[in-house]
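Purpose: get a first structural picture of the assembly so the mutagenesis plan has something to point at.
Setup: two entries, given in the order below. No constraints added.
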Amino acid sequence: MNNNASPTNTDERRLTIAEALREAIAQEMERDPRVFLIGEDIGIPGGFGGAFGVYLGLPEKFGHERIIDTPISEKAIAGAAVGAALMGMRPIPDMQYSDFLFECMDELVNQAAKMRYMSGGKLSVPLVMRCPVGTANRGAQHGQCPESYFIHVPGIKVVAPSDAYVAKGIMTAAIRDDDPVLVFEHKLLYGSKGREQAGGLDLTAHVPEGDYVFPIGRGLIKREGHHVTVVATHLTLYRCLAAAAELALEGIEVEVIDPVSLQPFDTDLIFSSVEKTGRLLIAHEDTLTGGWGAELAARVADDCVYSLEAPIKRVAAHDVPLPVAPILEQTVVPSQERITREIRALCAM
Amino acid sequence: MTERINVDDVTTERALDLYREMLRIRRFEDRVYQLFLQGELPGTLHQYQGQEAVAVGACQALNDGDWITSTHRPHGHALAKGVTVRSAMAELYGKATGCCGGKGGSMHLGDPDVGMIPAIAIVAGGVSVVSGMGLAFKMQRNGHVALCFFGDGASNEGAFHEGLNFAAVQKLPIVYVCENNMYGASTPFTATSLVPNVADRVAGYGIPAVIVDGMDVLAIHDAVSEARQRAAAGDGPTLIEAKTYRFAGHSRGDARGYRSRDEEAEWKEKDPLVRLEYSLLNAGRAQESTFARILDEVNTELEDAVEFSRQSPDPRPEDALTDAYATPIGTGTHS
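Result (structure tokens, whole complex):
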């Protein structure tokens, strides 16, 4: 369609993120015969329809030649995606849980990210890795948010959609992109289940029926304000929005930005917001040390130091593995209460 | 005592072509070693002398449109697949005219124009990636085959198991060529495996495995031709284990203290170049002057490549910042 479909259209065609991703993938598969899906449990009749059901209905439509079920072999999945991409295909591998990405770090970091460069620009690796993240009482090996590992790798792009409109557009952009793109999706935001977790916010969004691109590298202002800029993704974004609504009652106007893209960041959008507000808080479900918030903080410190009226603040998961007991888990990841408290403290500085 | 190989079923012209291909690699490696010691080449080297029959026999069995993956020891594979001596040499020199513009170097030699992705210097890395190349060819129904070179050491990697199993179950058009040169760096294969052959492991994947004399270019050629045919016919991958030996150390500066000089002498007797030459002479199919002429021609080609590389421009410093992405996103120097 075009690069600028408006997210403000009030048409009531509302989809969940899972539905929006499915629609983007189906439309791109129809449009481009090079696009195919590969992963575990994605097309088995009577099976799961891929992690979190995103692929339900697609095997019936596109057949098993383009929806390839694999053994439980993450290195094979990622390696097959890299090789197929090098030979002109557009694979969409998925990892069920992004914790499993560590099983195929070589294929992603040494192969996918570097083949173009090592070949002197003669080859490209257009693959889209789908990576579900997020804490959901599954413990230390099924709830991590490993986005930040990958923003450190030149050659890879990293995006993290948090609503259905963006999800469809950025998935389309990722599939059409000539570079490897890792799409991090939050498990609790796929469908209606997330509503409660996200503080009762409606997670569906208007999604145009036709295909459109939400460009990689563009962020979104989710709520305007002039006292403090808050940058957050995924479930934490919704907690920040809820915090912002709460703080508005106290007269604190929070500008909430969904960065969408973590490599590259939309620095123009974020810098100009910080220049306006003079304060920045970054919130993410990933752990604090070396998280993407640290990189963003460094960039803002570099470019906006004279606009800052207070230190840059980060609210992140504590630097421990994820526990299972709900009360422990909620202690580790940023809660709405903690976010609200930190924003309030920052604004008092 | 040089052991003869069977040259009955090959034309003299063809046999001499194979000889020339192998000699080009041998002389390339010898020359590159000198240049390295003279300080003309940056980095390190993993040399291929002794294994030439594998690269040449295998690549000569492929068709146009077929692709290969290679390893940290890729010079022989690159030349055998058709990377020109000039562009391979220039790449080792780190020059702009190299096949990867100076960004690949010795361990990532390759050229998509001849069907070779940059060599993968992570052990067994190619075994993962080749699955996708075979998968693409299967989906594109183009009849192409992907050939994956790797060493005995790679068979101890997890990628080997995942890659072979996946390719087998998908019946992908792939030929795996294991160059078993008996050592992973300094460690003997026998110290890392209770089965004596890499091929013994392959039964676990339900695909055929063949052991061949890796010092006989014709035997390699025949085995790979058959495997290629099987792959292209949709019958799935085959693994060929070539028993071979690297005459040089693992990398530059390896004094080879972990293996005996007797063992080395035994394998030198099997030198694939000497054996082919000896067999052709013995059968009265060629004269010594023929081999002398080929050597002259190969040396001339090499000196031309060295001169070309010396004269070639360095890449521009700013070229270091391109090619990480197809769509540039900045390189960290953001302001």
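The first strand of chain B starts at residue 67 and ends at 69.
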